[in-house]
Amino acid sequence: MRKLFPQDRYGAISANGSSRQQLPQFRAPLHPDGGIHHLRLVQMQQQQQAHRQQQLEQYQRALKNGTVNNQYRLDMDYMKQRMARRVERLQKKCTEYRLNEPKHTYKPKAWEYLIQHEYHLVWCNVFKAASTSWMYNFNLMAGYSPQFLRKTKDVPLQLARQKYPRPSVEKLKEAINESISFIIVRHPFERLVSAYKDKIQYALPNSHHHKLGNRIIQKYRKTVNGKPTSLLKHPTFSEFVNYLLDEIKHPHFEIDMHWVPVTHFCTPCFFHYDVIAKFETLEEDQNYLIAIGRLDSVIKPQWKNAGKGAHTNDVLVKLFAELDGAQIRGLYDYYRFDFELFGYSAKEYFKD
Prior knowledge:
The chain is α/β, with parallel strands linked by helices. The chain has helices at 38-65, 70-96, 131-141, 146-151, 156-163, 169-177, 188-201, 208-220, 237-248, 262-265, 282-292, 312-320, 325-342, and strands spanning 113-116, 121-124, 180-185, 223-224, 227-228, 275-278. The protein has a domain at 69-189 and 258-308. It contains 13 helices and 6 strands. A 4-stranded mixed sheet has the order 1-2-3-6, sandwiched between helices. Strands 4-5 form a two-stranded antiparallel ribbon. Strand 1 (113-116) and strand 2 (121-124) form a beta hairpin. Helix 8 (208-220) packs across helix 9. The radius of gyration is 21 Å and the shape is globular.
């Protein structure tokens, strides 16, 4: 299968690293050149989403009916250019910070990728970035029926791994050469809040994350005159952030996969992507992916996990208001490569 966007590929070595990998230290600019300001991006989405979504739906119908015209091709050209810009930025930043050079503490990691040979797709499953929806799609493509997936109590990832074994670096590189490879990313702070809500605030009783929450409360909840500063039964966001920042300081611990940086989890500088989808433009981006992969007869764009409680964007400002400048700076330093590689900004989160 011919690659859609041929690009220079970075070399990789045969090694599976853990999610606790160390990256080179650098002081990234707070507002990276060319970075997309998160709030401005949301405004742009609201203005443009309806128009381009309508065009993409028309394109999909025309593609299916064999009546594609120049108007729809222009829209697909726009999406192709968007993906080319994102891939170009990723490669530029990887080279700039030498993240495409294997090191003792930072090596290519193929462990989290899924290879769909029949439909020629390769995906790195970034948790809290439409992972539930696309895990469902990959399970459909693996042959599980929608009825089975609705009724089963099995964990979707475990079902998927029965069909998609974890690949070696060599096998992954081979698959990428003949597939459409993609990743879905999200603003790092928004992804962190989503993980906090799902895994800490609304943790299932007696689950691993529920027990973790209890340990966080025991260690980080402050008292005044012998009384706790919060009566919440789950950790506050500030308590959770203090826990995370302490964990980061101890390299022998493995950071939870739901909030580990994408740069650690997928090692994106070692592998080529044809599509870099963003959670903020997901509807457009996944429609484009479905169109170029001719997957419309197999899967449909749908939202499989709306999460619990208020929408993440609705609580984002409130939760970050709990943090002081040192906490926000610590989080930015930890996720700085995710900000840099994928063109996000943290400007709005820093207090004057």
